[in-house]
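Following up on my earlier thread - several people asked me to post the actual chain instead of describing it. Fair enough. Here it is, all 176 residues.
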Amino acid sequence: MLPEVGSMVYIQSFKHDGSLHRTWAKGFVIEASDQQIVAVTNKTWVTEADGRKWFTREPAICFFYPDCWFNIITMIRKTGIYYYCNLASPSLYDGEAIKNIDYDLDIKLYPNGEYEILDEDEYQEHGHEMNYPNDIKMIVETQMQELIRRIKEMEDPFNDETINKYYKIYQKMYKR
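Reply from S.P.:
Thanks for posting it. Predicted structure:
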């Protein structure tokens, strides 16, 4: 099942134990195929598991994949395009929301091409607390190396040209 292009959807991230991690109140779908769902969040409410809410300040183009153990959020800021990559289960759309399971590890890519791996301690802690199976740990760690490879090779969507293309599509579609 795929969301309808031009529709608004919820985006929900869960933890391995099934608990809700984070929810975006709306994502505007600009592409939906068997390879990826692309949605834009812009000035939307995000609710954390502990009930805290915050409002996104800038447009973010989000890439969700049904066959990759990660998703990518690109934030378009005045200082450039920032990428936040979440190591997570493959994403699926169930008619209600785009959903995945967050596995803690993240990679942040800066406009100058430098990147850093985030939340390794959280990954270790949650892996122990929630008893991540070894096969899932191996998949997550292998997919992190795949993300790093894609970043270094500037493979889509890790280049400004791709992000600018999607942002223009969003601007055209959302004005209707």
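The radius of gyration is 16 Å. That should answer part of your original question.
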